[in-house]
Amino acid sequence: MHDLKGGGERFEAPFWVWNAQDPQRRALYVEQVRDHWRLSDDAGWAHRLPADHGDLSELAQGLSDLENAGIKIRPRALTTTMYLRLFLSDYFIHGIGGAKYDQITDCVIEDIFGLKPPAFMIASGTRLLPIDLPDSDGHSVADFDRLLRDWDFHPEKVLPDDLAPEQKEQAAELIDAKRSLTSGGAGLGGRERHAEITRLSEELRTLAHNRRDELFSQRQQAEAQQHAREILTARDFSLCLYPESSLRPWLLGAPDRTT
Questions:
Q1: Same domain, 148 and 228
Q2: Chain segment 22-73, per-residue pLDDT in tens
Q3: For residue 16, which of 25, 56, 81, 90 is within the disulfide window of CB 3.0 to 4.6 Å?
């Protein structure tokens, strides 16, 4: 929403204007020039209408002639909802976005018409598309990022379950030696201990070399599932994508729901 432009006798009106030959809607500008109104769109189109001198019949005829000539003048959103609320509806129901918008409408009604704005209600609900979501094994992308980091620094945490017996024995010896070093044992200085821990981790990674590719593949799959779920659980799909058979009962039952 932006402030309407204006200065002197020329003002931007709260309407759009377009025609069949040029369907791009543009702001409508109105200027009083002596005995007539000059309408324009600031893009080359202009038209004269008789000024109002107490008799609206000529002005109404001029607007009707414009419509018959294919010139469309239509209200903007705020103007439309303001007219509906003031003249046509007993009660207006908005979604969250429209309700925030109509707080501005309330100010316009009070300032221009000097009226207390009619109340409106806010209704909101989330209905997901009736599409099965991708299966998940319970592990998120962040989980696999942590496991991949463990492969780099703590490979003993991600060793595969199908190691051969001799590999399991080797892994147990390497893990015991690394645990002894990380607890400050073996009587080595800091630099030597770090070098030995690095060597032991490298041997453990050799035993788990296939595990990294497996984890990376699983991470990619989890990322694709997460992306698909984000799309399929979005709230902003068009109403026409929902089957009436599932949407109608949900809408009609809305007043009875508490969740």
A1: yes
A2: 889 999 999 888 788 899 998 889 888 887 666 788 888 888 999 998 999 9
A3: 25
Based on the fold, state whether residues 86 and 165 are members of the same structural domain. no
Closest C-alpha among 213, 179, 215 to residue 196: 179
According to the model, what pLDDT value does residue 259 have? 41
Question: Distance between CA 80 and CA 98 in Å, rounded?
Answer: 12
93 lies in the same domain as 70: no
Of the candidates 83, 90, 158, the one whose C-alpha atom is nearest the C-alpha of residue 119 is 90
The reply to whether 245 falls in a domain is: no
Please tell me the total count of domains within the chain.
Answer: 3
Please check whether residues 171 and 221 belong to one and the same domain. Answer: yes
Domain that holds residue 98: 78-122
* pLDDT (tens digit per residue) in 164-182: 889 989 989 999 988 888 8
Q: What does the alpha-carbon distance between residue 230 and residue 115 come to, in Å, rounded to a whole number?
A: 45
Do 33 and 94 belong to one domain? no
